[in-house]
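Design request, tokens follow.
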């Protein structure tokens, strides 16, 4: 049972549109609208745009839920949501809350997206704080899940245990991972390593029965992760994620630069690139579909601020897939009331 009554069934959700914030992101509204149009045409996923008509412009045939305000990328998240009740973000979250949309997607202000989802959809019973789950590629295997990737900079051990539960439910619902394993991000494999938060969380995770805890993981274990779920606080998780993105971008750019050095390297590129490019695509943020906000009473996908049309296509696909697979129900079942430590 949700805060707004009986939660729609997956079958019902499949008939509802995904609400897309047309004004979210650095490339809005053009790239956002084009991505929404493509996924509606190519996949048949119903989509509704949300935004001020005079700023959205041509919707390319997609329906538009009109509003009058936009929360900018650099605006204070909580303040923006409180002041701008008729913003595209708030209205998108309300569509999910009211059973008029199956999910919401935004590439806009991350904090405001989370605040809109939390304040309008509400949190699931027993959830201390929602968290952000981001997929990490593992070549030849289903992705691992990093949680929390940036929602909560300060956490308690009880929160991290709950993040692990929600992350495991997400890995099962989205990627079909059976009996997900969980690792705790730390500075060493030994249980005595880490901050007081990490050490206390380790002790709690050892006692968990809902998943298999494999112990501490170090930063070098993130790619590829030996665990299906990597749990950490949002500050550490976001720094780790951005470090991975920057390092991989540097590596691939350096390789491409080497390939153009002379005729020999160009010839090597002709042979290697057909093998390297598909691998590089797995590490491209545009292809991941964005991060999932876990713990709210509705599906919310947070896309990268620089999202282009391709990123929007994948974000809508993920949102629709998670909604129709009953992600919220899976997360709700995994969460038991946990008191803050």
């Amino acid at each position: 049972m949700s805060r707004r009554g009986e939660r729609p069934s997956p079958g019902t959700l499949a008939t509802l549109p995904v609400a897309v914030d047309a004004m979210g992101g650095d490339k809005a509204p053009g790239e956002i609208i084009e991505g929404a149009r493509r996924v509606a045409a190519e996949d048949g996923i119903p989509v509704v745009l949300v935004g001020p008509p005079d700023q959205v412009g041509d919707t390319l045939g997609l329906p538009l839920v009109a509003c009058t305000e936009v929360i900018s990328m650099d605006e204070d998240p909580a303040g923006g949501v409180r002041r701008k009740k008729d913003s595209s973000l708030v209205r998108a979250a309300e569509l999910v809350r009211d059973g008029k949309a199956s999910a919401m997607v935004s590439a806009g202000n991350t904090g405001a997206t989370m605040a809109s989802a939390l304040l309008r959809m509400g949190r699931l019973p027993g959830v201390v704080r929602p968290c952000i789950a981001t997929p990490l590629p593992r070549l030849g295997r289903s992705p691992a899940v990093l949680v929390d990737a940036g929602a909560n900079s300060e956490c308690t051990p009880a929160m991290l245990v709950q993040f692990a539960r929600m992350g495991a439910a997400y890995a099962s619902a989205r990627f079909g991972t059976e009996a997900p394993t969980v690792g705790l991000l730390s500075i060493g494999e030994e249980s005595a390593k880490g901050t007081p938060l990490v050490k206390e969380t380790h002790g709690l995770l050892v006692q968990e029965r809902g998943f298999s805890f494999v112990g501490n993981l170090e930063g070098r274990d993130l790619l590829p992760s030996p665990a299906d779920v990597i749990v950490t606080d949002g500050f550490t998780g976001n720094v780790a994620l951005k470090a991975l993105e920057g390092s991989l971008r540097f590596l691939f750019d350096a390789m491409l630069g080497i390939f153009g050095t002379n005729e020999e390297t160009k010839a090597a590129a002709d042979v290697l690139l057909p093998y390297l490019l598909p691998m590089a695509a797995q590490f491209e943020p545009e292809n991941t579909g964005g991060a999932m906000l876990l713990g709210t009473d509705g599906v919310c996908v947070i896309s990268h601020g620089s999202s282009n049309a391709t990123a929007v296509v994948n974000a809508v696909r993920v949102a629709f897939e998670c909604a129709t697979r009953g992600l919220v129900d899976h997360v709700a079942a995994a969460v038991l009331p946990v008191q803050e430590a």
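Comment from the thread starter after seeing the answer: thanks! DSSP finds twelve helices and eleven strands in the chain.
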